[in-house]
Amino acid sequence: MKQNLDEILAQVEKPARYIGGEYNEPEPFDGKFDYCICFPDVYEVGMSNLGIKIVAEAVRGAEGAYVDRCFAPWPDFGEKLKENGIELYALGNKKPLKTFDMLGFSLQYEMSYTNVLYMLDLANIPLKREERGEEYPIIQAGGPCVCNPEPMADFIDIFTIGDGEENMRRLAELKLECNSKAEFLRRAAEEVEGVYVPSLVTVIYGDDGKIKGFSPDKKIKKAICRNLSDAVYPQKFLVPNIEAVFDRAILEVMRGCYRGCRFCQAGFLYRPVRERDKDKMVETARSLVCTSGFDELSLNSLSTGDYRYLRELIPALKEALPDVHMALPSLRLDSFEGDFVQESRKSSLTFAPEAGTQRLRDVINKDVTEEEITRGVRLAFEQGYTGIKLYFMLGLPTETDDDLRGIRDIVFKIRDVYSARPNRLRGLRISVSVSTFIPKPFTPFQWERQSSRGEVEAKIALLRKELLLKGVSLSWNDYSLSEMEAVFARGDRRTGKVIEAAYKKGCIFDGWSNIFKTEEWYAAFRECGIDPSDYTREWGEDEVLPWDIIDVFVDKKFLLKERRLAYENKVTGSCKSGCKGCGLQNVYCPVSREAKVKKQ
Amino acid sequence: MIVFKYTKNDGAEFISHLDTLRHLNKTFTRGGIKVKMSQGFHPHMLIFMSSPIGVGLKSTAEYCTVDTDTPPAEFKEKFNAASPKGIKCVAAYYTPKNINLASAIIKAKYYIEGLNVFDAEEVLSAKEFIVTNKRGESLNARDKIFSFSRRGDGYEAVLAAGNASLRPDVFVAALKERYGGGHIRIIKEESFVAGDRPPESLIDLSQEQKTP
After folding, report:
1. Cα(first)–Cα(last) distance of chain A, in Å?
2. Does A4 touch chain B (CB under 8 A)?
3. Which domains does chain A have, with CATH numbers?
């Protein structure tokens, strides 16, 4: 006997994920353009995401647009929906996703790709774009992962590359002007910044199976929001029904990063650096806190310590919102000051030196010195912290066993700093967390190979031996998961088959290591005749890369120069110390423009 | 201090006890209801909820005590202006001290829909009533059933609540197994303290609120 939704809700874990009705939810209405943001992960993760909130706000800027939301149902609820023939629905108006004009997927993480297919499937929408006629919604995708859209190109009708503040509203308006899907896609590709329509681009392969080029051979330029301070930003957040990963108000203080760490994709993708107006942020913070009741406010960016007006912003926020805790989640080690905290509860503080020796930190352009690390932890101890979390990468280019032993040296130095303190009430806890380096598109390391399983296992074995110390714990991630992430970060259009095959074998929520189905994934690769090592290998500098169709305005020549400097152990340093000429200066970069003005 | 009675329905029945506490916290902040904080390493609002109700069970008789100087009428108005859907204050009273509702409430009345029609007398006339609790153990819960009768299209039951409670969903699952039924809906309608009196009877209404 089929059950209705209420009965199903009574049988699943955390049913409040699926009922909508959050505090601050706008009243649903029948829009002229109905858009549903689809987040391919569970409610608690999606509700913490800032990007989708900005996109929702942007689309609402189009007259008559209605914006709703949907998250990936946890497997227990997904199964029940299937069993009972209930189609996946939007949380606000409770209508099937199929009835919307456009669904917008937020691709934040490569290992959420199967969840896109899972959500389409639960919505009874054909997975492949070629199988979807006019009767189905347009499937759009944005977010950081779409800088290489190719692995998802068979499933997505339209990708939006870059900032969504302006082009998402334009897309909504354009949709209202068009009479057919084909017309909309064609005009969007021509008229809207940052739009990539895979059905309009053919990939040409050479006899060796490598990519020869694209037809037409025209790069898709990412969209840049030039004035963030005046751009749309939510003034109210939905209050999640159940505790979200981050249960707090979020201010994005700036976009982009001055640093240019060579492994960091976000550092290149989000260029140029744009800082927000501090007075406007205080007003936004006040609105967010008063309308939501959050008692924590997080100042987000890739490197919040680099925000130039932080010393004025923090006191202004404290004055405006005296009862609110402030969190600075991505504070770099060298910018850590005792009066800033990462979290409201002083349990442990996280630092990410990323590499164990100064040499290797120079290679990756992470210009943090050992003195800065010890100074940072000393300040942390003075503040009462008794736990330190350290993040490192494993398998970085040029890495040797000495670099790994450097991790042990850092741990020892931190212990020395702690031992030198009077009144140590508790023992020091240091947790070292290592993750396998993944060469990502649009970074100077995009051509690098990923370390093999054997190499990584040997490195972990060495670290386990070196870090067998009291009060020190070591954790590492599953190699298979990192390997898949590398494949789909750098994959071409052919890898889409693997995603579909894996989904058909039951792979969903792959980013959840307790759910990740290793065997099924490798079977999917075999079935499709695709070898993961073809994508984790080193790529020739003259090879056409799958993501060469996209232009994020960072010159390939600049990336190659950075790669050489890495091999010479030379740092490039931050944009603050002068323009490094990455390419953005020719398009739009307030930092480089300011530097030029100063020089003159 | 304020004791207030509130609902948990209209979707809010799916919100867990802990999450409900988080929503109460935020409601007070948004509503501008100043709540006294605990003095400790991690200060938190002084909110004392009655015993948890199972996820999915509706209620129009939840109780909570909160340490605030806001007068009852103002409290109710501010609370309802800022509370989420389904969590609404029905009544608010001043109390000079915290009446420990979590232990004082010992019985609750539920209205149950969706069971097949059967002779309600059978439940009370039997010596034993075996239920399977959430841990999968079978036990006799007869002494935790105080009344059970047919009412309208459904049934009304008064069951033990608080520390030695009988969960209504556990009770109803046993009935459904025995007599059959379809989609079950359970609403908690009233809570009782000793002597089958309402929790409000514990509040010393003679005490006037001192203006802070």
Report:
1. 78
2. yes
3. 5-214 (3.40.50.280), 249-477+539-586 (3.80.30.20)
